[in-house]
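=== RUN LOG ===
request id: a7f3
mode: sequence -> structure
chains: 1
length: 320
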Amino acid sequence: MDISVVIPLYNEEESISELYSWIDNVMVKNGYSYEVIFVNDGSTDGSWEAIEQLYRENPDHVKAIKFRRNYGKSPALYCGFKEAQGNVVITMDADLQDSPDEIPGLYQMITEEGYDLVSGYKQKRYDPLSKTLPTKLFNATARKISGIKNLHDFNCGLKAYRKAVVKNIEVYGEMHRYMPYLAKNAGFGKIGEKVVQHQARKYGSSKFMGWNRFVNGYLDLLTLWFLSTFGKKPMHVFGFLGTVMFFIGFLAALGIGIDKLWCLANHIPQRLVTNSPWFYIALTMMIIGTQLFLTGFVGDLISRSSQNRNDYQIEAELKN
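=== RESULT ===
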């Protein structure tokens, strides 16, 4: 099969039929074999009934998954990726803001130009300022931390993946924003971008608020960076910070002690060490340093006992 189209959705009953017809026209025109996988993320409107109708009319091309409640976009993509059989997997939103006319170009970049992942770039957007401004700040931060300098729109729902990519990365929480970063960490380094058309929303309203997405996205990005950098070696960060803090606290305590002894030796009146605020600052730093070091030690023990401690992505093997 050439293409799997994975579409997570929440309360998009008005657009489902129109979106499928648009996708079908593009696929037939280009001669692609395909499947469309709808993942209904706990919709409370008639979205599932609309999907059921499409399935009855097109059982060879339509697949569907229905969640009992709203879990979020990442779980929807995870389940959709598990079902995908196409050599190229396309993801898009169900609100008609992503154009299926972009599919042939994305497919070509994967199959002919050798990209592992291609992310859409909505250069001209029709979103309100409350959504576009946080998006710009978020993308600038994501480029800096991930090291993927050529992407301008990490969170664009319209993306194309080589099948091996979606079968070897795990999307969870709200990590769908960082699919390129997840792919890079899994060893898929050829990541590209394609300028795509952004449609104005035709039905309903956006389900996401801009600043909330930015704050959550920023925190998720820090989590992903930390896990990818120190996930298998927590002692490297906690042990280092703990050692530095303990050493500084120890030197401060030593300085206070030397100063006290020098004053006693020279018969200079000096208040008790325990009356000095610097003594407690030094003591606190030593205690925190010890705790950080022990946190790294415990983290290393947990990492070494993890079932996935030796989970490495192997691209190919040659053996007798």
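=== NOTES ===
Residues 235-305 form one domain.
The first helix runs from residue 13 to 30.
=== END ===
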